[in-house]
Amino acid sequence: MVERIQLLAGRLAGAATAASPLSLPGAVPVPEPQQPLLPRKVPGADFDVLRIRSQFPVLNRRLPSGGFPVYLDSGASAQKPRVVIDAQRDVEEQYFANAHRGTYQFGLRIDEAFEGARADVARFIHAPSADSIVFTPGTTIGLNMIAAGWAVPRLRPGDEILTTVMEHHANFVPWQQAAARTGAVLKFLPLTSDGRLDPSQFDTAFTARTRVVAVTAMSNMLGSINPIRELTRRAHAVGACMVVDGAQSVPHLPTDVTADNIDFLVFSGHKVYGPTGVGVLYGRPERLEEMQPVHFGGHMIAQVGLEKSTWSAPPARFEAGTMPIVQVIGLGAAIRWMEATGLDDIHAWEMHLTGMLYERLSQIDGIRIFGPKPEFRGGIISFRIDGVHPEDLATILDHHDVFTRHGHHCTMPLHTSLNVSASTRVSFGAYNTADDVEAFMRALQKAVERLRG
Ligand code: PMP
Asked: Is 164's C-beta closer than 6 angstroms to any atom of ligand 1?
């Protein structure tokens, strides 16, 4: 296995130039030599992908064709392992009650499981305490809460919000709205020609007016991994707050909010092998103290009077009303599953598959692979092939039981800057195998032959 990966890495170095680079307006050539942001670790010898895959019931059900799903859309949502499904069913069958309400047996047990999940999340992302973990409905709502509750009350006309053109709409539109409401200005960190943040532009991009830096840790379209620690250092040097969209990075790369020193991190449960309807907003304790709640009602209050009310301390201040209790507990199970499986190994395995796919795709005539070479990306590859529309391609792939995403992937500004309206995206999870890559390539080959006539 080790030799195979080394061989692959060597072949990749040659293949990397085969794909066409991005053509972003104002794009700057990448300085050579490039230093990978992450070491390419070889997956542990005990990473048994078939055993992992066997833990995911939906991947082991037969489709009407008689085959099994080739699921390559984990960037949109990951499948759930049996332990997550069981944890949720267990709550509803064994001890369901509302959380933080009753002191009867079910009430106590549900509180313990609910707060246990908070401790699981804190440990997983290296947060200083469980109190810095706020449960939300997902990444989108978390980012809206930060923009409306922390940024809007602080932003003044002419202040700058620094973001990137590679952001998902969830980390773009709330800042556009915050700017419109306060007179602040949205500014963009320039990208290199291969779709990475251009470090040579950092000195000019960060200014004395920068108040918020809102950047994704990993692009959901380009796959690029961004240098969060360096960006945070620069944000803090000019007195700005660092907001990280971890929706794509947290499922795939180890996260350490303390070492990275970031102010806010958000991610979604459904992308980390957990349920939908739940997400996480991490806030450095002093930032959570400063943040205003945007949802008001039960549980988040300290005192309610006829004239005015006061708020409880974080995280309760930001958890108004009944929370998605079952999903929070399911998320805790998902976190423990990732810890037991080993995030380093998951990442290394996904990078192995990514390298493999990148090399195979690079050999296709007329292909344009978006984003950097594998060393600088996570397990996502988006591409366009001349004469092949992504929507037609998706339909044919589906006929071969291969499930991929097509469209603008909620990154319209990025697609516009790349001069395409849509692309095809393959994204990996811990359960994907080399056979999935082969099945995808076979289906792709057939689709391209058919669509090109
Ligand atoms: N940010 C990124 C980078 C994403 O990939 C996504 C999901 N595609 C989101 C934000 C939004 O996540 P959610 O829909 O779970 O709120």
From this structure: no
| CB 424 near ligand 1, within 6 Å | no
Distance 222 CA to ligand 1 centre (A): 14
Compute the distance between CA of residue 295 and CA of residue 281 in angstroms, rounded to an integer: 14
Amino acid at 406: H
DSSP E strand boundaries for 29-104: 70-71
Percent above pLDDT 70 for the chain: 90
Per-residue CA distances from 128 to 122, 166, 212, 213 (Å): 7, 30, 22, 22
Q: Does the annotation mark 410 as catalytic?
A: yes
**Contact (CB, 8 A) for 403 and 70:** yes
DSSP assignment string, 181-210: HHT-EEEEE-BBTTSSB-GGGHHHHS-TTE
pLDDT, tens digit (0-9, with 9 covering 90-100), for 301-335: 999 999 999 999 999 999 999 999 999 999 999 99
Structure token pair of residue 85: 């499904």
Kindly state the tokens that stand for 54.
Answer: 């066997």
Q: Residue 136 and residue 186: Cα distance in Å, rounded?
A: 26
> What is the Cα–Cα distance from 29 to 26, expressed in whole angstroms?
10
- Strands 264-268 and 241-245 turn out to be parallel
- Number of neighbours of residue 70 by Cβ within 10 angstroms: 23
- Residues β-bridged to residue 215: 244
For residues 214 and 323, give the distance between their C-alpha atoms in angstroms, rounded to a whole number.
Answer: 26
Ligand 1 centroid distance, CA of 168 (Å) = 7
Exactly one of 78, 410, 439, 448 is catalytic; name it. Answer: 410
Taking the model in full, what pTM does it have? 0.90
- For range 374-386, the mean pLDDT: 96
Q: Measuring CA to CA, which residue among 230, 305, 215, 223 is closest to residue 260? A: 230
Residue 377 CB–ligand 1 contact under 6 Å? no
CB atoms near residue 424 (< 10 Å):
24
Nearest ligand 1 atom to the CA of 142 is: 16
